Amino acid sequence: MCEICQHYICPSACPNAEERTIGVCAYCEDIIYETQPRVRETDGRLFHTECLEELSLPELLAQFNIEVSEEE
Ligand SMILES: [Zn+2]
Ligand SMILES: [Zn+2]
């Protein structure tokens, strides 16, 4: 039993509650928790918003299968 809330399964208000997971990030392959900002693609793939923000534009487009190359 949880010592804080006295429940066997902690309600979300309890600090010991396990964070609910939404899925796995298609970019970094880490778990996405309910509390994290995330982006869902139309076909169902999920990404951390943070992961997509770190990508350069060509990398970002490649994640969505749009191939671009820089021309001189
Ligand atoms: Zn608890
Ligand atoms: Zn990620």
Please provide the ordered H/E string of secondary-structure elements.
EEEEHH
**Uncertain runs:** none
Oligomer: single chain
Estimated share of beta-strand residues: 15-25%
Hetero groups in this structure are: zinc ion
Query: Major sheet: order of its strands?
Result: 1-2
Cα-atom radius of gyration: 18 Å
Structural class: alpha+beta
What do the pLDDT scores average to? 91
Largest sheet features: 2 strands, antiparallel
Straight-line distance between termini: 65 Å
Number of helices: 2
Number of strands: 4
Global morphology? rod-shaped
Helical content stands at 10-25%
Note down, in words, how this protein is organized:
- With 72 residues, the protein is of the alpha+beta class.
- β3 and β4 (46-48) form a beta hairpin.
- The protein has helices at 49-54, 57-63; strands spanning 21-24, 31-33, 38-40, 46-48.
- It has a two-stranded antiparallel ribbon.
- It has a domain at 21-63.
- One zinc ion is lined by residues 25, 27-28, 30, 47-48, 51.
